[in-house]
Amino acid sequence: MYKKIIWVLAVILFLLLAERLVFTSADLKITLSPEVLKASHNSELFIEVNRVNYLGFKTPFSSTDVFFTVEEGKNLINISEIINGNSVKVTAKGVEGEAVIGIYSIRSGMQIRKVLIKILPRDVAYLPDIWII
């Protein structure tokens, strides 16, 4: 009799802990794709902001409503399109340098993060980390 009660309590405790780990937001994950822009008018970069739980996965049934502003480098980049309220498409204006985009919460208006975007010269090709000679 007591064994069954202990098992039921253990299962309930496990379910409460699993719910807390899976459905509670712990941090924001900001994904840049690709990681740098080229100094070309057709170079694009996508920034996506998602909530992640304690296990590091995207939190189910959560929405992240943010807006993006160019903090530094308005002559370098342009925010061309906002997608689904949590991602943005950034295009280069053809000038190399570094720009900073601020990510703000729509609900509170507070700044969540700043993202540094590097704009490389148009002629720079991808250089691998490991050189084979």
Descriptive labels:
alpha+beta; 133 residues; Immunoglobulin-like; 17% helix; elongated
CATH superfamily: Immunoglobulins
Estimate the helix proportion, in percent.
10-25%
Overall pLDDT confidence: 86
Number of helices: 1
Structural class: alpha+beta
User: What fraction strand?
Assistant: over 45%
Strand-helix topology:
Blueprint: H1 2-23, E1 25-33, E2 37-38, E3 44-53, E4 66-72, E5 77-83, E6 87-92, E7 97-105, E8 111-120
Parallel strand pairs: 2-8
Antiparallel strand pairs: 1-3, 3-6, 4-7, 5-6, 7-8
Structural write-up:
It is a single chain. The chain has 133 residues and is of the alpha+beta class. The protein has a single domain (25-120), classed as Immunoglobulins (Immunoglobulin-like), CATH 2.60.40. 17% of the residues lie in helices and 45% in strands. It has one helix at residues 2-23, and strands spanning 25-33, 37-38, 44-53, 66-72, 77-83, 87-92, 97-105, 111-120. It has a four-stranded antiparallel sheet with strand order 1-3-6-5. A four-stranded mixed sheet has the order 2-8-7-4, with no helix packed on it. The protein starts with a helix and ends in a 13-residue tail after the last strand.
